[in-house]
């Protein structure tokens, strides 16, 4: 099963061109869609999830036409939206059971076993009788994955799932995602480079509605070899450097900025070459 997005466009009524001729082919496995806030990631995710219409273009999932065969897509889709609302006064096992009914798992015995297995998988079994209103952010996200996995989806979309999680919960959540089947198309939309670095075999960098890079993280890293230059400067020099060079990142170390510049050769002969990482790829695309 492959997800193919062709020439997708969307302009909202306020004039924002949120998707600009987007073309992507997404294979089974974990695909990272990396971009800053406002890049258009949620617009793309919601369109694939059949929740909004594009102005033009096409999307297919295997031989399903996503834009016209919405019911077919919904049967095989697991979706964790950016704002996943839960009913605060309902406990996890009751809500998951209810959502399983809505997903069409009507056989009581089968439903009980699916719901219980998912609560174990997401490490929520011990908290299954607790009201969702009392769940932490990480627990809510894990519950979100449990509901997304009901009915064995072939396509799973998780939109910015780690934003706001503390490091321990984020790790737990990423481990959970990494266990999702090889036989599933999983799209992870995020603005956190490390999420992609740790999990994804394939990725795209997305900004202002456009795909700026697509390929594997290794291909992305190969493309910047020899082009990332580092220098420790003083704070007072920072604005000059920003005016004169393509500064893609700045980090304060002991109060002084260390800058990374993207350039084909040593910018003014005073920089040190560094091995770039995925963050350098991301910022070099975003600030191109
Ligand atoms: N329903 C809407 N009506 C008008 N403009 C919208 C609507 N939804 C999104 N936008 C605009 O479209 C652009 C892309 O938004 P989108 O939410 O898809 O980006 P994103 O990459 O998911 O970012 P974020 O993480 O901030 O949600 C933004 O400029 C946003 O303000």
TrEMBL record:
Keywords: ATP-binding, Nucleotide-binding, Transport. Residues 3-233 form the ABC transporter domain. The keyword Transport applies. InterPro entries: AAA+_ATPase, ABC_transporter-like_ATP-bd, ABC_transporter-like_CS, P-loop_NTPase. One of its GO terms (molecular function) is ATP hydrolysis activity. It comes from the Bacteria. PANTHER family: ABC TRANSPORTER, ATP-BINDING PROTEIN. Belongs to the ABC transporter superfamily. This is ABC transporter ATP-binding protein. It comes from Emticicia agri.
């Amino acid at each position: 099963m492959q997800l193919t997005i062709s020439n997708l466009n969307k302009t909202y009524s306020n004039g924002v061109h949120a998707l600009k001729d987007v073309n992507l082919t997404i294979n089974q496995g974990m695909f990272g869609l990396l971009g800053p806030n406002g890049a258009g990631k949620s617009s793309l995710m919601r369109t694939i999830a059949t929740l909004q219409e594009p102005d033009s273009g096409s999307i297919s999932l295997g031989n399903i036409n996503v834009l016209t065969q919405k019911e077919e897509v919904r049967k095989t889709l697991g979706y964790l939206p950016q704002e996943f609302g839960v009913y605060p006064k309902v406990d996890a096992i009751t809500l998951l059971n209810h959502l399983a009914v809505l997903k069409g798992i009507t056989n009581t015995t089968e439903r009980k076993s699916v719901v219980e297995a998912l609560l174990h998988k997401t490490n929520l079994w011990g908290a299954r009788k607790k009201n969702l209103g009392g769940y932490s952010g990480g627990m809510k996200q894990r519950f979100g994955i449990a509901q997304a996995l009901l009915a064995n989806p072939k396509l799973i979309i998780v939109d910015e799932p780690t934003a706001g999680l503390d490091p321990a919960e984020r790790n737990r959540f990423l481990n959970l995602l990494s266990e999702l089947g090889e036989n599933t198309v999983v799209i992870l939309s995020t603005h956190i480079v490390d999420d992609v670095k740790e999990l994804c075999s394939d990725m795209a960098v997305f900004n202002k509605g456009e795909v700026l890079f697509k390929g594997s993280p290794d291909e992305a890293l190969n493309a910047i070899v020899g082009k990332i230059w580092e220098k420790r400067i003083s704070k007072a020099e920072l604005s000059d450097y920003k005016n004169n060079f393509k500064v893609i990142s700045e980090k304060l170390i002991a109060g002084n900025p260390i800058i990374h510049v993207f350039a084909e050769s040593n910018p003014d002969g005073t920089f040190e070459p560094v091995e770039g990482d995925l963050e350098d790829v991301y910022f070099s695309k975003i600030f191109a």
